[in-house]
Amino acid sequence: MKVVVWLAEGTWQACVDAAAEVAPPAASITLLHVTDPALASDVSDAYAGMVGRGSGGRDPGLAVDAAAARAAEAMLAAAAARLDRPSSPALRRGRLEREVVSAAEGADLLVVARDGPVTRLGPRSLNPPTRFVVDHAPCAVLLVWPTPPPPVDTIPPPPPHKAAPPHHP
Amino acid sequence: MGERLSLSGAPPPGEPVAPAVPWRSVSTVWAVLLLAVVLAFAVVRPRGLPEAAAAVPAAAIAVGGGLVPWAAARDEMIMLGPTVGFLAAILALAHLADAWGVFGYAGALAARASRGSPTRLLTVVFGIAAAVTAVLSLDATVVLLTPVVFATAAAAGVRARPQVYACTHLANAGSLLLPVANLTNLLAFGATGLTFLGFAGMMALPWLAVLAVEYAVFRWFFAGDLATPARPAPVAPSPAPRFALVVLALTLAGFAAAEPMGVAPAWVAAGGAVALAVPLSVRAVGRRLRTAREIALSTNPLFCFFVFGLGVVVLALRRNGLDDLIAALTPSSADFLGLLAVAALAALLANIVNNVPATLVLVPVVAHTPGLVLAALIGVNIGPNLTYVGSLATLLWRRILHARDEPPSTSAFLRLGAVSVPACLLAAVVALWVALKLSTVL
């Protein structure tokens, strides 16, 4: 059984814990982290927009990119330690949702955490990239709550039943 | 009689000036071309050459070709001198503050104050970015603070997008408060006729209004990222770089205190930089030469030359028709609609040609009414967040560059600017209008 665990800031611990719980001992576990280079590139762009400053190695986008790479390595290491069983790390760069779906190709299970507002049940508990992953995953998906799930009564009451449409024979 | 070849085609002395249109249009074309080349070069930067490599020769051509008399060019550079001197000093001051660990300390402070909450981290970053921009200017926020904020968010297990974008946005929009916060403010400060504290007093309300609008837009725009639960990680205590913080506070007080005595802010900033540099150099045994070289390079001398060159090239265009055109487009009174029109025009110009040339073009035309100068500053400072790379030309060029390696995967920045810039402009103009009504100075 191949299990892919998508690690993201703030929620990865719940994914690792869930994988440790459900993956059989013989399963091969891949710990996946995706960095979207758009953030560092936007910072570079913002710097480029300040006319006349030259480049001279002062581009803060490069510093953000390097810090992002370090943070990703650190998260993978922390996740491997938390899992405490054999796993293989996978680092990818690109659009989050596309990279995760592509990394899940050929897997049997993808572990994903909700990452939107977690105070009530509902579709908003998935941010758009996570929603894309759940909708497009090419395998089974285990969708976990990063915090204890909110109670069922956080769902708004259903709208009143509409009157049945008039019957036309 | 041989005709003297001149770029400007200016009529020889003694001849009637009346049919001015033909010669003026030729020199206008030349002036437009020169400015276009300077700006295009600054965007494309062929072979990584500095922007000054085009701006300085272009200025020489403008003077040599008769588009600008040498005396006028010299006066322009004398006028720009204190501004450029301040620019060099504040860049060095920010570099030295970083070497003293001020930005690292700010990051640690933000991590501690946020207690693991993405929203609280955003709030604290707003405060820090606004303060850094106001005191050390926008370069410090973009170049030195942004990477620290990213690292702080990552270490706290927080998705860094809102906080990082906050830094880049506030570097522009948050630079309204003090004359030293932005090169644009420095270029226009003289035309306002205000004192250092008078400027801060007039711009305090617009600055606060912009911060409030940006904060509301960020909370709404990044609601998803901010709602992701984070697990607070223990933050290692970091000692405050007290000496550097005291020097920065004294420098800030010095800007206001030295002005009535006729001391330019450049000298105050240079004094602060020297105060920070000396202990560092003394301690850097064996690396003194390298430390001194780093400090010298941090003043970015080529940038300073670029500002001089650009000033002369813009002057050439102003003297050859642009002043008349801009004067026809700008309202002459500082009523609410006048302020709004000038701010909008300034924002538009900043997005077409970048905000420094936009300021050089616009401020002399509205200098007759200080309220309009402040409105122009609102436009040129907030406007760049719309295309976020400073101008449309830069945006298009960066897109072409990126198309080769990795496609730009998000338009988040553009969408954010489309929401925040119009709202900030309006809020700031309303606030400025109120400040002008309440003011006894203007």
User: How large a portion of the residues of chain A is in β-strands, by DSSP E?
Assistant: 15-25%
Number of helices of chain A: 5
Quote the average pLDDT of chain B: 87
Determine the fraction of residues in helical runs of chain A and give it as a percent range.
25-40%
CATH H-level name of chain A... which superfamily?
HUPs
- Give the biggest beta sheet of chain A: 5 strands, parallel
Question: Which term fits the overall shape of chain A?
Answer: globular
Gyration radius of chain B (Cα, Å) is 23 Å
Structural class of chain A, please? alpha/beta
Radius of gyration of chain A: 21 Å
What ranges of chain B have pLDDT less than 50 throughout 5 or more consecutive residues? 1-21
Summarize the structure.
Chain A has five helices and five strands; from the N terminus they run βαβααβαβαβ.
Describe this structure in words.
The complex is a heterodimer of chains A (169) and B (442). With 169 residues, chain A is of the alpha/beta class. Chain A contains five helices and five strands; from the N terminus they run βαβααβαβαβ. Chain A has helices at residues 12-22, 38-48, 60-83, 96-103, 128-136, and strands spanning 2-7, 28-35, 88-93, 109-113, 140-144. In chain A, helix 1 (12-22) packs parallel to helix 3. Chain A is globular and about 75 Å long. Chain B has 442 residues and is mainly alpha-helical. Chain B has a domain at 23-67 and 303-317. Helices cover 75% and strands 0% of the residues of chain B. In chain B, helix 2 crosses helix 14. Chain B is globular, with a radius of gyration of 23 Å. The termini of chain B are far apart. Mean pLDDT of chain B is 87; it is low at 1-21.
